[in-house]
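Hi V.,

You were right to ask for the full record rather than a summary. Here it is.
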Amino acid sequence: MRRLLRVLVLSLASLAAQAEPIAPVSLTELAQRSDLVAVAQVRDTDYRTRREIPVSGSAYLRPLITYKGDDAVDIFEIYEKGLHERACYFPNPTVFEEGRRYLVFLVRDPDDPERYRAHPEGCALDVLVDRDNRYALRYPADGIRLSDDLERLAIPMDFADRYAIVADEDLLPQRRDLLLARTAIGAYGEDRWIFLLGIPLHEARRLIDPAALADRVNSK
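Predicted structure:
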């Protein structure tokens, strides 16, 4: 899974440098345009790859908290095709690993209403678990191009999540230097780093106008 993640990071970074810029969007606008907003965990993926890079296929996620959409489903499918800056591909956990968690914003696939697709601005923000077993958005929250001022909400956090730890080889040098300058990561053993900042999920949730979540099927 780490090799796939590294290849994805390098490939998408290269595409980002070449792509036309996408205007940032607020969490409220993104939620308003979404059919599903949820904290979810990756269970499995089924991707067609080319040179070890996903080029099409589906990821299967288990909803943990549903803010908008059908909260009666046990698993939902996210389909992606092509490779572009905000491509919605996920690392696949091995049989020995717990899947990564994300806050996802998705729309129904017009070609298959049983599955979902990403927005042009992106589809997912990394969610980590702290020592008190609470969810938080990893900061910087860079999975979606957002206009919200998230920096003011970011606080030091003691993460207990294995996905808060990243190998040095999995970070582009420019990104590593930027994260260090913002005190967003710290050394964690040899050639590894750990994320130090997060946004409590309930604080991020307050950025979303309740009206943007009004179409959910059931309530929790």
